[in-house]
Amino acid sequence: MKIAVIQGPNINMLGVREQHIYGPMTLDQIHQGMKEQASQNGIELEFFQSNLEGEIVDKIQECLGETDGIIINPAAYTHSSIAIADALSAVNLPTVEVHISNIYKREEFRQKSITAASSTGVIAGFGPFGYHLALISLGQIISEVKAMEKARAEQQAAKA
Predict the structure, then answer these.
(1) Annotation-wise, does 101 bind a ligand?
(2) What angle do CA 140, 146, 152 make, to 5 degrees?
(3) CB atoms within 10 A of CB 119
(4) Where along the sequence does the record put site: Transition state stabilizer (predicted)?
(5) How far is the C-alpha of 25 from the C-alpha of 127, rounded, in Å?
(6) Does the annotation place 58 within a ligand binding site?
(7) What tens digit of pLDDT does each residue of 45-83 get?
(8) In whole angstroms, how far apart are CA 39 and each of 32, 35, 46, 67, 81?
(9) Which of the residues are catalytic?
(10) Structurally, what CATH architecture does the domain formed by 2-159 represent?
(11) What value, to the nearest 5°, has the Cα angle with vertex 87 and ends 49 and 5?
């Protein structure tokens, strides 16, 4: 099982920026914890971070046929990027959107996620632990999808 972890703008500044909102952990520390959890569960992770919307769209599109699912923190693009939402819909992969802070307790403009409708689920407000919850959730979702695909293939083979 392979999962892409896509991080949006300013996530590379974790540990430095607004620690009262995002905490002291760096992006590398979050990714290291995810690697440890993934290796225990036979999951391969691919990490990507960009401050540029088009690069994030390109990365999402590259996931088609290459990964089984996506964990994404679109960061500020959550509230403004129809392009990222469209890319997620186009690849149609199981996707969990993650937010370190509880976007619903923040400024009004941050309380609307344009990208959420293109995601399988959203995890917000659990700090960096939200990435671990996303990994558990997405692993389960992908396993269920693969089991359903296998059952369908067996049914079709039995009919043939």
Answers:
(1) yes
(2) 135
(3) 21
(4) 17
(5) 9
(6) no
(7) 999 999 999 999 999 999 999 999 999 999 999 999 999
(8) 11, 6, 12, 16, 32
(9) 22, 99
(10) 3-Layer(aba) Sandwich (3.40)
(11) 30
